[in-house]
Amino acid sequence: MRKTDILQKYPPLMENVLQILHDFQNNNPRNYLSEKDLAMIANYLNVTHSSIYGVVSYYTLFSLKPRGKHIIRICNSPVCHMAGSRDVLTALRKNLKIGFGETTVEGIFTLESTECIGQCDQAPGMSVDGAFYGNLTAKTILPILKSYQE
Amino acid sequence: MTQEHRISLKNAGHINPAKIEDYIAADGYQALKKALGMPAEKIVYELTQSGLRGRGGAGFSTGLKKKFTSEASCILLECMRYIVCNADEGEPGTFKDRIIMEGDPHLYIEGMIIAAYAVGAEKGYIYIRGEYNQSIDMTRKALEQAEARGLLGDNILGSGYSLDIEVKPGGGSYLCGEELTLLESLEGKRGYPRIKPPYPAQKGLFGMPTLINNVETLSHIPAIILNGADWYKRIGTDQSPGTKIFTISGDVNNPGYFEADMGVTLKELIYDLAGGIKDRKKFKSALLGGAAGTFVPEAFLDASMAFESLQEKDTVMGSGAIIVMAEDKSILDMLHSILRFFEHESCGKCVPCRVGTRQLRILLEKLVTNGHTKSTNIDALLQQSEIMAKTSLCPLGQSPVLPIKSAVRHFREELQQS
User: Which of A1, A79, B184, B356 is most exposed, with minimal Cβ within 10 Å?
Assistant: First the structure.
């Protein structure tokens, strides 16, 4: 979808900024918001560039850096922590050879942490591009990763 | 054996949530029809009489909230009233609103339309956290279906009353679940808390009178309108009528969501409904209410889960999250995870919370390394969390004292030995 088409979907009001940011980011194959995007949105909403930057930098779902094709977000909150999310994280890092906030060399995965995503009855859990995977172990993550590599 | 009693989850899992026909076949939108034939004051009266209290965590009277919003005087000529549904569920251990939104979206939407009519709101927003993709999709679909059937939009069911409801996704912030911060976020700003008062009922979204209710709270309204306040009051306890969804996670055999009468005991929830402790281990503690909650020991298993009885015991119900810890789990490790969580989610607007959440985490880490000064460190931890609670601007900075104080109260020995 063209960026101008995304903007045209919403009245130029600041209350629509989060939705516009989500749409821009989801539309970008590298899953991020560029300086140019922020300028374009600021112009459309008739606000300063800095006020858009302020919003983007506050919320954890937005990125100002290019990311991988798929975003892995492993839950780090108390319930998942208690259920052993640290072991899953170690396995993820070993397998992908990256740390938090980093992207694999071939640009497929970016590894992030998230706070509670409300699937605590299946802890420990993670999401890949928003889809949830629960009851994870160092072993069960392998086929999940593989399904996204193909 | 304690059984579930489902009001807000009556359809979840039994109907196809993507089909409005299924919801209507289960008496859906009958309450809305009835409500539109009632004067708005009568609905507010009925909800106040029912004793329904907010299910988001604070437990404020739903009827009174509506009364304050509908009575808020309009100084401006062009006064708008808003209704906002708080669907920014982010408290660790809590997933009740997600189950309603994914399993029976029309139920809370019906409750929201009735509530909006009762306070005279013309525009509604549902603020759903950005991580809940399925809840967002389900709710959007349900709103479209309701509008196509004249249950939403202009002149609802020919009553002359009109209401538009829009879904707004969040951007990933725990703090935005706090009602005034949520309003800031809805207006398209950074999620910084506002100073209260004024409360949303007087000055809410865009400075206008605004009613904010949680998803679970709204889901109780259709049943109250259909069956009456007296019916509802007979369920639960005197001061906490009705049912509550408890989300049980951690070391239990059957983790999940369970709706039961208020006043059910912790033991019944954990052993009858959630299947008892995993691997035949012994119960050690439950963290009630999530990260912004309180640890309770075994002696509290007989506690009645209702707002007033938990308050008497200096503990909280919060969102209804129950995180169960078996005998081999460490309170210190859990507390560390909680303090790390608050440090991450502190917005940085006010100094006591920005600096304090970090200091608390560091102090706790010192407990592990400084063997001989542990007792002094525990006292410092308590004291600093209390100062923070008194000086912070919003509930986030006021929360760490809850898990810290309860952990020290019930597990001080363990903390000293660790």
Answer: A1
